[in-house]
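P.,

For your records, the input lines for the assembly:
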Amino acid sequence: MSLPTALRFASAATKKVVLLPDHAFFVRVVPLAAGTLPADVPAQVELALEGLSPFPVAHLCYGWFHRPGSARVLIYAAYRRRFTVEDAAQWADADAVLPGFAAWLGCPPDGAHALLVNGADFVTALGWDGADPVPSLIATRQLAPDAPAAERAAAGADLATQLAGLPAPKAVAAVTGTVSRVGDEGLEFAVDGRTARFAVAELDALDVRDKAELAERRRERTRNHYLWRAFQGGLAAVALAGVLELGLAGGGLWLKARAAQAAAQAPAVQAIETKNSLAHRIEELSSNRLLPLEMISLVGSKLKGSSIQFLRTSTKGLYTLEIEGQTNSAPDVYNYQAALKELPACDHVELGQTTDRGGITRFILTITFKPGAVLPAAAPS
Amino acid sequence: MKAFFLTRLFREKVLLTALLALGALLWLSNVGRRGHALWLQWRATSTLLATQQQWLDNRADIETAATQAVAHLDPAHTFSSTRLLGELSTIADDVGVRGNTASEILGTERTSQFAVNTIQFSLRNIDWDSLKRFYLELSRRTPYIGLEQFSLTSAPGNAAQLNVMLRVSSVEIER
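C-alpha coordinates returned:
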Protein backbone atom coordinates (compact mmCIF):
# COMPACT_ATOMS: atom_id res chain seq x y z
CA MET A 1 0.00 0.00 0.00
CA SER A 2 1.39 3.40 -0.96
CA LEU A 3 1.88 5.98 1.76
CA PRO A 4 -0.96 8.27 0.57
CA THR A 5 -3.31 5.31 0.50
CA ALA A 6 -2.20 4.31 3.98
CA LEU A 7 -2.88 7.81 5.21
CA ARG A 8 -6.30 7.88 3.60
CA PHE A 9 -7.21 4.62 5.28
CA ALA A 10 -5.71 5.70 8.56
CA SER A 11 -7.68 8.94 8.48
CA ALA A 12 -10.94 7.06 8.35
CA ALA A 13 -10.16 4.40 10.93
CA THR A 14 -13.22 5.23 13.02
CA LYS A 15 -15.47 3.43 10.58
CA LYS A 16 -16.83 0.07 11.45
CA VAL A 17 -17.15 -3.31 9.80
CA VAL A 18 -19.42 -5.97 11.31
CA LEU A 19 -18.34 -9.53 10.60
CA LEU A 20 -21.11 -12.10 11.04
CA PRO A 21 -20.48 -15.74 11.98
CA ASP A 22 -19.85 -17.93 8.95
CA HIS A 23 -22.31 -20.60 10.05
CA ALA A 24 -25.23 -18.16 9.80
CA PHE A 25 -25.05 -18.37 6.01
CA PHE A 26 -25.60 -20.95 3.39
CA VAL A 27 -23.04 -20.54 0.64
CA ARG A 28 -23.10 -21.57 -2.99
CA VAL A 29 -20.72 -21.10 -5.90
CA VAL A 30 -22.84 -20.58 -9.01
CA PRO A 31 -21.38 -20.73 -12.51
CA LEU A 32 -22.18 -17.79 -14.76
CA ALA A 33 -23.15 -18.02 -18.38
CA ALA A 34 -20.25 -17.17 -20.69
CA GLY A 35 -20.15 -13.48 -21.55
CA THR A 36 -22.14 -12.34 -18.50
CA LEU A 37 -21.52 -8.66 -17.97
CA PRO A 38 -20.76 -7.38 -14.44
CA ALA A 39 -23.95 -5.31 -14.61
CA ASP A 40 -25.97 -8.50 -15.13
CA VAL A 41 -24.50 -10.32 -12.11
CA PRO A 42 -27.00 -8.94 -9.51
CA ALA A 43 -29.93 -10.23 -11.57
CA GLN A 44 -28.23 -13.62 -11.97
CA VAL A 45 -27.64 -13.71 -8.21
CA GLU A 46 -31.30 -13.00 -7.43
CA LEU A 47 -32.37 -15.61 -9.94
CA ALA A 48 -30.07 -18.17 -8.36
CA LEU A 49 -31.29 -17.29 -4.86
CA GLU A 50 -34.89 -17.75 -5.87
CA GLY A 51 -33.96 -21.25 -6.99
CA LEU A 52 -31.76 -22.14 -4.02
CA SER A 53 -33.63 -20.62 -1.11
CA PRO A 54 -36.94 -21.73 0.35
CA PHE A 55 -37.53 -18.11 1.37
CA PRO A 56 -38.35 -15.14 -0.86
CA VAL A 57 -35.32 -12.99 -1.64
CA ALA A 58 -36.87 -10.12 0.29
CA HIS A 59 -36.63 -12.25 3.47
CA LEU A 60 -32.93 -12.91 3.04
CA CYS A 61 -29.77 -11.15 4.05
CA TYR A 62 -27.53 -11.95 1.13
CA GLY A 63 -24.47 -10.91 -0.73
CA TRP A 64 -22.17 -12.15 -3.40
CA PHE A 65 -18.58 -12.02 -4.53
CA HIS A 66 -17.57 -11.72 -8.14
CA ARG A 67 -14.61 -10.21 -9.91
CA PRO A 68 -14.75 -8.98 -13.52
CA GLY A 69 -13.90 -11.86 -15.83
CA SER A 70 -14.83 -14.55 -13.27
CA ALA A 71 -16.75 -17.49 -14.63
CA ARG A 72 -18.60 -17.94 -11.35
CA VAL A 73 -20.11 -16.02 -8.50
CA LEU A 74 -20.05 -16.83 -4.83
CA ILE A 75 -23.46 -16.35 -3.26
CA TYR A 76 -24.22 -16.41 0.47
CA ALA A 77 -27.51 -15.77 2.21
CA ALA A 78 -29.15 -16.07 5.62
CA TYR A 79 -32.73 -15.94 6.68
CA ARG A 80 -33.31 -12.42 7.91
CA ARG A 81 -34.89 -13.60 11.17
CA ARG A 82 -31.72 -15.41 12.20
CA PHE A 83 -30.53 -11.99 13.27
CA THR A 84 -32.12 -10.14 16.17
CA VAL A 85 -33.37 -6.59 16.18
CA GLU A 86 -30.36 -5.71 18.37
CA ASP A 87 -28.05 -7.17 15.72
CA ALA A 88 -29.76 -5.12 13.02
CA ALA A 89 -29.46 -1.99 15.19
CA GLN A 90 -25.70 -2.51 15.35
CA TRP A 91 -25.59 -2.74 11.59
CA ALA A 92 -27.21 0.65 11.12
CA ASP A 93 -24.04 2.65 11.67
CA ALA A 94 -21.66 0.06 10.21
CA ASP A 95 -19.95 0.69 6.95
CA ALA A 96 -20.03 -2.92 5.94
CA VAL A 97 -21.77 -6.04 7.26
CA LEU A 98 -20.19 -9.22 5.93
CA PRO A 99 -19.88 -12.88 6.79
CA GLY A 100 -16.50 -13.51 8.42
CA PHE A 101 -15.20 -15.66 5.57
CA ALA A 102 -15.73 -12.80 3.13
CA ALA A 103 -12.62 -11.14 4.55
CA TRP A 104 -10.50 -13.80 2.83
CA LEU A 105 -12.02 -13.18 -0.58
CA GLY A 106 -10.12 -9.98 -1.17
CA CYS A 107 -6.67 -11.59 -0.92
CA PRO A 108 -4.52 -11.32 -4.03
CA PRO A 109 -4.69 -14.38 -6.32
CA ASP A 110 -2.39 -17.10 -4.98
CA GLY A 111 -2.97 -20.05 -7.32
CA ALA A 112 -4.65 -23.20 -6.07
CA HIS A 113 -4.79 -23.23 -2.30
CA ALA A 114 -7.11 -23.95 0.59
CA LEU A 115 -7.71 -22.50 4.03
CA LEU A 116 -9.25 -23.90 7.16
CA VAL A 117 -10.51 -20.93 9.14
CA ASN A 118 -11.05 -21.48 12.84
CA GLY A 119 -13.58 -19.21 14.47
CA ALA A 120 -14.89 -19.23 18.06
CA ASP A 121 -17.87 -21.43 17.18
CA PHE A 122 -17.22 -22.58 13.64
CA VAL A 123 -14.70 -23.99 11.22
CA THR A 124 -14.83 -22.86 7.60
CA ALA A 125 -13.06 -24.34 4.63
CA LEU A 126 -12.25 -22.14 1.61
CA GLY A 127 -10.72 -23.54 -1.55
CA TRP A 128 -9.42 -21.82 -4.69
CA ASP A 129 -8.69 -23.87 -7.76
CA GLY A 130 -6.31 -21.21 -9.13
CA ALA A 131 -8.35 -20.73 -12.27
CA ASP A 132 -10.63 -18.07 -10.85
CA PRO A 133 -10.39 -15.45 -8.09
CA VAL A 134 -13.77 -16.67 -6.82
CA PRO A 135 -13.35 -19.71 -4.51
CA SER A 136 -14.45 -23.02 -5.89
CA LEU A 137 -15.74 -24.12 -2.50
CA ILE A 138 -16.72 -22.70 0.86
CA ALA A 139 -18.15 -24.93 3.57
CA THR A 140 -18.76 -24.30 7.28
CA ARG A 141 -19.32 -26.40 10.36
CA GLN A 142 -20.88 -24.83 13.42
CA LEU A 143 -19.41 -25.81 16.79
CA ALA A 144 -20.29 -25.06 20.34
CA PRO A 145 -18.16 -22.24 21.70
CA ASP A 146 -16.72 -24.66 24.26
CA ALA A 147 -16.38 -27.58 21.83
CA PRO A 148 -13.44 -29.87 22.68
CA ALA A 149 -10.41 -29.84 20.41
CA ALA A 150 -11.20 -33.31 19.13
CA GLU A 151 -14.59 -32.19 17.90
CA ARG A 152 -13.03 -29.16 16.20
CA ALA A 153 -10.38 -31.43 14.62
CA ALA A 154 -13.05 -33.80 13.38
CA ALA A 155 -15.00 -30.95 11.82
CA GLY A 156 -11.79 -29.75 10.18
CA ALA A 157 -11.01 -33.20 8.84
CA ASP A 158 -14.53 -33.53 7.49
CA LEU A 159 -14.23 -30.19 5.71
CA ALA A 160 -10.79 -31.12 4.39
CA THR A 161 -12.29 -34.07 2.59
CA GLN A 162 -14.47 -31.60 0.68
CA LEU A 163 -11.33 -29.83 -0.50
CA ALA A 164 -10.16 -32.89 -2.41
CA GLY A 165 -8.07 -31.98 -5.45
CA LEU A 166 -6.70 -28.84 -3.79
CA PRO A 167 -3.45 -28.48 -1.85
CA ALA A 168 -3.64 -29.36 1.85
CA PRO A 169 -5.56 -26.63 3.67
CA LYS A 170 -3.70 -24.14 5.82
CA ALA A 171 -5.24 -23.60 9.25
CA VAL A 172 -5.75 -19.94 10.04
CA ALA A 173 -7.60 -17.93 12.69
CA ALA A 174 -10.82 -16.19 11.75
CA VAL A 175 -10.61 -12.49 10.98
CA THR A 176 -12.15 -10.00 13.37
CA GLY A 177 -13.61 -6.64 12.39
CA THR A 178 -11.07 -4.80 14.52
CA VAL A 179 -8.30 -5.51 12.04
CA SER A 180 -10.20 -3.90 9.20
CA ARG A 181 -9.90 -0.39 7.89
CA VAL A 182 -12.47 1.42 5.81
CA GLY A 183 -11.70 4.50 3.75
CA ASP A 184 -12.84 6.29 0.62
CA GLU A 185 -10.94 3.70 -1.38
CA GLY A 186 -12.81 0.74 0.10
CA LEU A 187 -12.07 -1.85 2.76
CA GLU A 188 -8.90 -3.59 3.87
CA PHE A 189 -8.38 -6.60 6.10
CA ALA A 190 -5.14 -7.81 7.54
CA VAL A 191 -5.47 -11.57 7.10
CA ASP A 192 -2.77 -14.04 7.93
CA GLY A 193 0.02 -11.61 7.12
CA ARG A 194 -1.60 -10.49 3.89
CA THR A 195 -3.94 -7.67 2.99
CA ALA A 196 -7.35 -8.36 1.53
CA ARG A 197 -8.83 -5.40 -0.31
CA PHE A 198 -12.29 -4.61 -1.57
CA ALA A 199 -13.30 -1.66 -3.69
CA VAL A 200 -16.32 0.39 -2.58
CA ALA A 201 -18.43 -1.04 -5.40
CA GLU A 202 -17.50 -4.59 -4.33
CA LEU A 203 -18.48 -3.82 -0.75
CA ASP A 204 -22.02 -3.04 -1.83
CA ALA A 205 -22.28 -6.52 -3.33
CA LEU A 206 -20.60 -8.22 -0.38
CA ASP A 207 -22.76 -6.43 2.19
CA VAL A 208 -25.65 -8.57 3.42
CA ARG A 209 -27.99 -5.75 4.35
CA ASP A 210 -31.07 -4.82 2.36
CA LYS A 211 -29.96 -3.79 -1.11
CA ALA A 212 -32.40 -0.86 -1.33
CA GLU A 213 -31.03 0.40 1.98
CA LEU A 214 -27.52 -0.02 0.65
CA ALA A 215 -28.44 1.90 -2.50
CA GLU A 216 -29.73 4.71 -0.27
CA ARG A 217 -26.50 4.56 1.75
CA ARG A 218 -24.55 4.71 -1.49
CA ARG A 219 -26.46 7.80 -2.57
CA GLU A 220 -25.86 9.31 0.85
CA ARG A 221 -22.17 8.43 0.60
CA THR A 222 -21.95 10.12 -2.81
CA ARG A 223 -23.79 13.16 -1.48
CA ASN A 224 -21.50 13.27 1.55
CA HIS A 225 -18.50 12.89 -0.69
CA TYR A 226 -19.45 15.95 -2.73
CA LEU A 227 -20.43 17.94 0.34
CA TRP A 228 -17.11 17.10 1.96
CA ARG A 229 -15.28 18.08 -1.19
CA ALA A 230 -17.20 21.39 -1.23
CA PHE A 231 -16.40 21.88 2.45
CA GLN A 232 -12.74 21.14 1.74
CA GLY A 233 -12.90 23.64 -1.11
CA GLY A 234 -14.32 26.20 1.30
CA LEU A 235 -11.57 25.46 3.81
CA ALA A 236 -8.97 25.79 1.06
CA ALA A 237 -10.49 29.12 0.02
CA VAL A 238 -10.40 30.33 3.64
CA ALA A 239 -6.78 29.20 3.93
CA LEU A 240 -5.96 30.97 0.67
CA ALA A 241 -7.68 34.12 1.91
CA GLY A 242 -5.66 33.86 5.13
CA VAL A 243 -2.41 33.51 3.21
CA LEU A 244 -3.37 36.45 0.98
CA GLU A 245 -4.29 38.47 4.07
CA LEU A 246 -0.84 37.81 5.48
CA GLY A 247 0.64 38.71 2.12
CA LEU A 248 -1.37 41.95 2.13
CA ALA A 249 -0.18 42.77 5.62
CA GLY A 250 3.43 42.14 4.60
CA GLY A 251 2.93 44.03 1.34
CA GLY A 252 1.36 46.92 3.27
CA LEU A 253 4.39 47.16 5.55
CA TRP A 254 6.74 47.02 2.59
CA LEU A 255 4.73 49.65 0.74
CA LYS A 256 4.77 51.84 3.85
CA ALA A 257 8.55 51.59 3.96
CA ARG A 258 8.80 52.52 0.27
CA ALA A 259 6.37 55.43 0.70
CA ALA A 260 8.45 56.64 3.66
CA GLN A 261 11.56 56.40 1.49
CA ALA A 262 9.84 58.40 -1.27
CA ALA A 263 8.68 61.01 1.24
CA ALA A 264 12.15 61.25 2.76
CA GLN A 265 13.86 61.94 -0.54
CA ALA A 266 11.06 64.12 -1.96
CA PRO A 267 12.52 67.48 -0.76
CA ALA A 268 15.92 66.70 -2.27
CA VAL A 269 14.32 65.60 -5.53
CA GLN A 270 12.07 68.67 -5.55
CA ALA A 271 15.12 70.87 -5.17
CA ILE A 272 16.86 69.15 -8.09
CA GLU A 273 13.70 69.43 -10.23
CA THR A 274 13.37 73.13 -9.44
CA LYS A 275 17.04 73.72 -10.21
CA ASN A 276 16.67 71.87 -13.50
CA SER A 277 13.51 73.75 -14.41
CA LEU A 278 14.99 77.14 -13.56
CA ALA A 279 18.23 76.34 -15.37
CA HIS A 280 16.17 75.63 -18.48
CA ARG A 281 14.17 78.84 -18.07
CA ILE A 282 17.34 80.87 -17.68
CA GLU A 283 18.75 79.11 -20.71
CA GLU A 284 15.63 80.06 -22.66
CA LEU A 285 15.76 83.66 -21.46
CA SER A 286 19.34 83.81 -22.70
CA SER A 287 19.22 81.90 -25.96
CA ASN A 288 15.62 81.19 -26.95
CA ARG A 289 13.83 84.48 -26.56
CA LEU A 290 10.16 84.96 -27.19
CA LEU A 291 9.89 87.40 -30.11
CA PRO A 292 6.21 88.41 -30.35
CA LEU A 293 6.56 91.72 -32.21
CA GLU A 294 8.91 90.15 -34.75
CA MET A 295 6.33 87.42 -35.34
CA ILE A 296 3.53 89.96 -35.67
CA SER A 297 5.62 92.01 -38.13
CA LEU A 298 6.24 88.89 -40.21
CA VAL A 299 2.57 87.89 -40.41
CA GLY A 300 1.55 91.54 -40.85
CA SER A 301 3.76 91.80 -43.95
CA LYS A 302 1.36 89.47 -45.75
CA LEU A 303 -1.68 91.66 -45.04
CA LYS A 304 -1.11 94.15 -47.81
CA GLY A 305 -4.28 94.66 -49.83
CA SER A 306 -6.26 92.43 -47.51
CA SER A 307 -9.45 93.38 -45.66
CA ILE A 308 -8.34 91.41 -42.58
CA GLN A 309 -8.13 93.18 -39.22
CA PHE A 310 -6.38 91.71 -36.21
CA LEU A 311 -8.46 91.75 -33.01
CA ARG A 312 -6.15 89.82 -30.74
CA THR A 313 -2.77 88.14 -30.98
CA SER A 314 -1.15 86.05 -28.32
CA THR A 315 1.81 83.74 -28.03
CA LYS A 316 1.69 80.06 -27.13
CA GLY A 317 5.15 78.89 -26.23
CA LEU A 318 8.21 80.27 -27.97
CA TYR A 319 7.28 79.66 -31.57
CA THR A 320 3.50 79.83 -31.90
CA LEU A 321 1.35 82.87 -32.49
CA GLU A 322 -2.43 82.79 -32.32
CA ILE A 323 -4.32 85.48 -34.21
CA GLU A 324 -7.98 86.28 -33.83
CA GLY A 325 -9.15 88.48 -36.65
CA GLN A 326 -12.10 89.56 -38.76
CA THR A 327 -12.88 90.47 -42.33
CA ASN A 328 -15.87 91.33 -44.47
CA SER A 329 -14.48 89.14 -47.26
CA ALA A 330 -14.34 85.48 -46.32
CA PRO A 331 -12.05 84.43 -49.21
CA ASP A 332 -9.39 86.78 -47.81
CA VAL A 333 -9.00 84.43 -44.83
CA TYR A 334 -8.03 81.51 -47.07
CA ASN A 335 -5.84 83.70 -49.25
CA TYR A 336 -4.12 85.02 -46.14
CA GLN A 337 -3.61 81.48 -44.77
CA ALA A 338 -2.06 80.47 -48.11
CA ALA A 339 0.19 83.55 -48.08
CA LEU A 340 1.38 82.77 -44.56
CA LYS A 341 2.29 79.24 -45.56
CA GLU A 342 4.65 80.70 -48.13
CA LEU A 343 6.65 82.50 -45.44
CA PRO A 344 10.08 80.79 -45.16
CA ALA A 345 9.99 81.13 -41.36
CA CYS A 346 6.57 79.54 -41.10
CA ASP A 347 6.38 75.87 -40.20
CA HIS A 348 2.63 75.43 -40.47
CA VAL A 349 -0.64 77.38 -40.27
CA GLU A 350 -3.92 76.09 -38.90
CA LEU A 351 -7.24 77.75 -39.42
CA GLY A 352 -9.32 77.27 -36.30
CA GLN A 353 -12.83 78.33 -35.37
CA THR A 354 -14.40 80.42 -38.15
CA THR A 355 -17.80 82.13 -37.85
CA ASP A 356 -19.72 84.33 -40.23
CA ARG A 357 -22.32 86.75 -38.87
CA GLY A 358 -23.83 89.80 -40.59
CA GLY A 359 -21.30 89.62 -43.41
CA ILE A 360 -18.36 89.70 -40.97
CA THR A 361 -16.20 86.59 -40.85
CA ARG A 362 -14.30 86.01 -37.62
CA PHE A 363 -11.52 83.45 -37.48
CA ILE A 364 -8.63 82.13 -35.46
CA LEU A 365 -5.30 81.34 -37.11
CA THR A 366 -2.54 79.48 -35.33
CA ILE A 367 0.88 80.02 -36.89
CA THR A 368 3.85 77.96 -35.81
CA PHE A 369 7.29 79.24 -36.78
CA LYS A 370 10.40 77.20 -37.31
CA PRO A 371 12.74 77.40 -34.29
CA GLY A 372 15.39 80.05 -34.87
CA ALA A 373 13.72 81.29 -38.06
CA VAL A 374 12.35 84.49 -36.48
CA LEU A 375 15.22 86.87 -35.78
CA PRO A 376 15.19 89.62 -33.13
CA ALA A 377 14.75 93.20 -34.26
CA ALA A 378 17.74 95.44 -33.74
CA ALA A 379 17.64 97.01 -30.27
CA PRO A 380 17.98 100.80 -29.99
CA SER A 381 21.44 101.88 -29.15
CA MET B 1 -12.58 17.24 11.03
CA LYS B 2 -13.84 14.92 8.33
CA ALA B 3 -15.35 12.61 10.94
CA PHE B 4 -17.01 15.61 12.64
CA PHE B 5 -18.37 16.87 9.34
CA LEU B 6 -19.66 13.53 8.12
CA THR B 7 -21.44 12.77 11.40
CA ARG B 8 -23.52 15.99 11.14
CA LEU B 9 -27.09 15.93 9.85
CA PHE B 10 -27.51 16.58 6.14
CA ARG B 11 -28.94 20.06 6.67
CA GLU B 12 -26.09 20.88 9.05
CA LYS B 13 -23.55 19.78 6.46
CA VAL B 14 -25.22 21.92 3.81
CA LEU B 15 -25.40 24.88 6.20
CA LEU B 16 -21.77 24.50 7.27
CA THR B 17 -20.61 24.23 3.68
CA ALA B 18 -22.73 27.18 2.55
CA LEU B 19 -21.57 29.37 5.45
CA LEU B 20 -17.95 28.44 4.86
CA ALA B 21 -18.25 29.08 1.13
CA LEU B 22 -19.98 32.42 1.72
CA GLY B 23 -17.41 33.47 4.30
CA ALA B 24 -14.56 32.44 2.03
CA LEU B 25 -16.13 34.25 -0.92
CA LEU B 26 -16.62 37.47 1.06
CA TRP B 27 -13.14 37.29 2.52
CA LEU B 28 -11.49 36.52 -0.81
CA SER B 29 -13.44 39.29 -2.51
CA ASN B 30 -12.43 41.74 0.22
CA VAL B 31 -8.80 40.62 0.09
CA GLY B 32 -8.90 40.86 -3.71
CA ARG B 33 -10.20 44.43 -3.59
CA ARG B 34 -7.60 45.49 -1.06
CA GLY B 35 -4.93 43.60 -2.97
CA HIS B 36 -5.82 45.50 -6.13
CA ALA B 37 -5.64 48.81 -4.29
CA LEU B 38 -2.29 47.79 -2.79
CA TRP B 39 -1.04 46.82 -6.24
CA LEU B 40 -2.02 50.21 -7.66
CA GLN B 41 -0.32 51.98 -4.73
CA TRP B 42 2.74 49.79 -5.16
CA ARG B 43 2.93 50.63 -8.86
CA ALA B 44 2.50 54.36 -8.19
CA THR B 45 5.14 54.28 -5.44
CA SER B 46 7.52 52.28 -7.63
CA THR B 47 7.11 54.77 -10.46
CA LEU B 48 7.64 57.67 -8.08
CA LEU B 49 10.76 56.07 -6.61
CA ALA B 50 12.13 55.28 -10.06
CA THR B 51 11.56 58.89 -11.14
CA GLN B 52 13.12 60.20 -7.95
CA GLN B 53 16.10 57.91 -8.48
CA GLN B 54 16.55 59.27 -11.99
CA TRP B 55 16.61 62.83 -10.64
CA LEU B 56 19.03 61.83 -7.89
CA ASP B 57 21.25 60.01 -10.38
CA ASN B 58 21.34 63.13 -12.56
CA ARG B 59 21.90 65.50 -9.64
CA ALA B 60 25.54 66.20 -10.52
CA ASP B 61 24.76 66.86 -14.19
CA ILE B 62 21.84 69.13 -13.34
CA GLU B 63 23.88 71.11 -10.84
CA THR B 64 26.65 71.50 -13.40
CA ALA B 65 24.13 72.64 -16.02
CA ALA B 66 22.54 75.07 -13.56
CA THR B 67 25.92 76.52 -12.66
CA GLN B 68 26.77 76.91 -16.34
CA ALA B 69 23.37 78.51 -17.06
CA VAL B 70 24.11 81.40 -14.72
CA ALA B 71 27.88 81.45 -15.20
CA HIS B 72 27.75 84.15 -17.85
CA LEU B 73 25.35 86.36 -15.86
CA ASP B 74 26.57 89.23 -13.73
CA PRO B 75 24.87 89.06 -10.31
CA ALA B 76 24.90 92.86 -10.14
CA HIS B 77 22.64 93.06 -13.19
CA THR B 78 20.10 90.50 -12.05
CA PHE B 79 16.68 91.54 -10.79
CA SER B 80 14.68 90.62 -7.73
CA SER B 81 10.91 90.87 -8.17
CA THR B 82 10.89 94.34 -6.62
CA ARG B 83 13.75 95.49 -8.83
CA LEU B 84 12.00 93.98 -11.84
CA LEU B 85 8.84 95.97 -11.06
CA GLY B 86 10.90 99.12 -10.75
CA GLU B 87 12.76 98.43 -14.00
CA LEU B 88 9.52 97.89 -15.96
CA SER B 89 8.11 101.12 -14.53
CA THR B 90 11.31 102.93 -15.52
CA ILE B 91 11.04 101.65 -19.09
CA ALA B 92 7.35 102.66 -19.24
CA ASP B 93 8.32 106.06 -17.91
CA ASP B 94 11.03 106.44 -20.55
CA VAL B 95 8.58 105.48 -23.29
CA GLY B 96 5.93 107.82 -21.88
CA VAL B 97 3.29 105.24 -21.03
CA ARG B 98 3.83 105.13 -17.27
CA GLY B 99 0.21 106.09 -16.55
CA ASN B 100 -1.16 103.23 -18.65
CA THR B 101 0.53 100.38 -16.80
CA ALA B 102 -0.50 97.87 -14.18
CA SER B 103 1.57 95.08 -12.69
CA GLU B 104 1.28 92.07 -10.42
CA ILE B 105 3.97 89.84 -8.95
CA LEU B 106 3.07 86.25 -9.90
CA GLY B 107 5.75 84.49 -7.90
CA THR B 108 9.33 83.45 -7.42
CA GLU B 109 10.91 80.06 -7.97
CA ARG B 110 14.08 79.77 -5.98
CA THR B 111 17.06 77.47 -5.59
CA SER B 112 20.04 77.90 -3.32
CA GLN B 113 22.00 79.55 -6.16
CA PHE B 114 19.44 81.56 -8.11
CA ALA B 115 15.78 82.49 -8.49
CA VAL B 116 13.41 83.31 -11.32
CA ASN B 117 10.82 86.02 -10.60
CA THR B 118 7.68 86.36 -12.69
CA ILE B 119 5.50 89.45 -13.07
CA GLN B 120 2.37 90.13 -15.09
CA PHE B 121 2.60 93.56 -16.64
CA SER B 122 -0.14 95.25 -18.65
CA LEU B 123 -0.14 98.32 -20.84
CA ARG B 124 -3.47 99.86 -21.77
CA ASN B 125 -4.43 102.17 -24.61
CA ILE B 126 -0.99 102.61 -26.08
CA ASP B 127 -0.12 103.00 -29.74
CA TRP B 128 2.00 100.63 -31.82
CA ASP B 129 5.10 102.81 -31.79
CA SER B 130 5.10 103.15 -28.00
CA LEU B 131 4.67 99.41 -27.69
CA LYS B 132 7.56 98.84 -30.05
CA ARG B 133 9.80 101.19 -28.09
CA PHE B 134 8.83 99.55 -24.83
CA TYR B 135 9.50 96.13 -26.33
CA LEU B 136 12.90 97.10 -27.69
CA GLU B 137 13.91 98.62 -24.37
CA LEU B 138 12.85 95.44 -22.64
CA SER B 139 14.86 93.39 -25.15
CA ARG B 140 18.03 95.26 -24.15
CA ARG B 141 17.75 93.72 -20.65
CA THR B 142 18.07 90.23 -22.11
CA PRO B 143 19.08 87.76 -20.70
CA TYR B 144 18.38 89.24 -17.24
CA ILE B 145 14.79 90.04 -18.16
CA GLY B 146 12.77 88.00 -20.64
CA LEU B 147 9.27 87.73 -22.02
CA GLU B 148 7.43 84.49 -21.36
CA GLN B 149 4.00 85.33 -22.68
CA PHE B 150 2.57 88.07 -24.84
CA SER B 151 -1.01 89.02 -25.64
CA LEU B 152 -2.14 92.01 -27.72
CA THR B 153 -5.72 93.20 -28.29
CA SER B 154 -7.20 96.21 -30.02
CA ALA B 155 -8.93 98.63 -27.68
CA PRO B 156 -12.72 98.55 -28.17
CA GLY B 157 -13.83 101.38 -30.45
CA ASN B 158 -10.33 102.43 -31.45
CA ALA B 159 -8.24 99.94 -33.40
CA ALA B 160 -5.15 102.18 -33.14
CA GLN B 161 -5.10 101.85 -29.36
CA LEU B 162 -3.72 98.60 -28.07
CA ASN B 163 -3.95 96.71 -24.83
CA VAL B 164 -0.97 94.52 -24.04
CA MET B 165 -0.55 91.84 -21.42
CA LEU B 166 2.99 90.58 -20.76
CA ARG B 167 4.39 87.92 -18.51
CA VAL B 168 7.93 88.97 -17.73
CA SER B 169 10.56 86.96 -15.90
CA SER B 170 13.84 88.01 -14.40
CA VAL B 171 16.85 86.05 -13.22
CA GLU B 172 18.12 86.73 -9.73
CA ILE B 173 21.45 85.30 -8.63
CA GLU B 174 21.95 84.85 -4.89
CA ARG B 175 25.09 86.57 -3.75
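Two observations worth noting. The mean pLDDT of chain B is 90. Chain B is about 55% helix and 30% strand.

Regards
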